[in-house]
Amino acid sequence: MVSYFLAYATANERATYELDELHFSNMGTYASGVSHLSVYVAVSTVAERTKIDAGLHDALKVALSSTSVSIQEVAFKSNLGRDFSSFAHCLRMICKTAKDEDYVLFINRSAYGPLGNGWYSKYIEQYHKFPDVQLCGSTINLSGHPGLPVESASPHVQTYAFFGRVGDFREFIKNFPGEHEEKRIDVIRHGEIGLSRRILQRGGALTCLAWPNYSFVHNLPIDPSLPTGDIKRSVINLPFQYRRKHYGNPNNTPSRPSMPNNAADLFLDFFHDFFGEDKPRVSVSIQSSHNTTLFYSPELDRCIHIDKNSASSHATALKPLNLRLSNDRLTFFVQLANCEVELCLYDSGLHIRRQPVGQTKLLGNCFEVIRLEKNLFHLRAAGLFLCAEPNGELCCNRLRPSIWETFTFVASHTAEPMKCLS
Predict the structure, then answer these.
(1) Which superkingdom is the protein from (predicted)?
(2) Are residue 152 and residue 15 in the same domain, yes or no?
């Protein structure tokens, strides 16, 4: 019987593990596509260990909340080799029980996701699409690294997410590529690029989900129509989306898709993409990265986010948030018994205010819409980003956006159709 493993690399230089917890929450939310998944976690010790580090195993287990995905180990190790020494540690633990025909997916916390069902099985399907594949990634880079010599520009799987059979990696148990490197550039050269190079030199092939109709083998020509820049931030519809900035020369980076000129056009694009509609005849709600929907609570007199099942059984009836678009701004409003009332930002939260409030605390009613990849966006007002906290609270006090400040659309049976104003 084939077994399935996941090796997860992170570090402890941040005050919390909120990003990691969100990733594990998504692993529990979305079906992996395999019967059971065993997860090994390795943490690079960048800062002095604290009580938060000691509670990481339990925190990830709570976030995961799944019977089909289980955490086998959370281990702390030195930062030498960065993610590659973390991958090496996880591989050694996995190989104690795994067979060569078992599968293993390696990801680090830069891999935002999973973003949908079948996130593990999609790598299996792509892996078996071509003969001799020994390494499958989300994306492949053809251009090397701008800080390395030109000869580094060989095809290599980008290692925020890569996959194979355990037997493909067994020769690296004693010396995983890049695990002993100190400098970041050497980790890239001997780790990310070196891993693919060694696979190719021994006769293995590379493939990736972003280019599902291609495989790459040693010394064979590459289709000239493929982009030679770093594609990992421009591709969409993958199980994991890379979230960091490009490290390469912008001149060698593929241009981003053209964006609509204003928010109304942007959301019309969303409607067309999601619902096949050219005009917003469909009712929608806004969903957070926690898979929760934004509502107004009359009892609290502010907005919260909660899953729809919990909202339907809430003690006090919650009001769905409705949306209104002007040229480049988004506002929220709710329909009360005898009136329609806009929500405003007050003390960093979304509240109803029927009377004017002091200008020192009123930040404004409109949000600037900042579009990300395809169906994701941030909402910003007065230089601060709207944030969905894990406890259900909504606030607008973040200077920089990350996962909790990311939102999308979902179809709604309770909200009013979105209003677009010229």
Answers:
(1) Bacteria
(2) yes
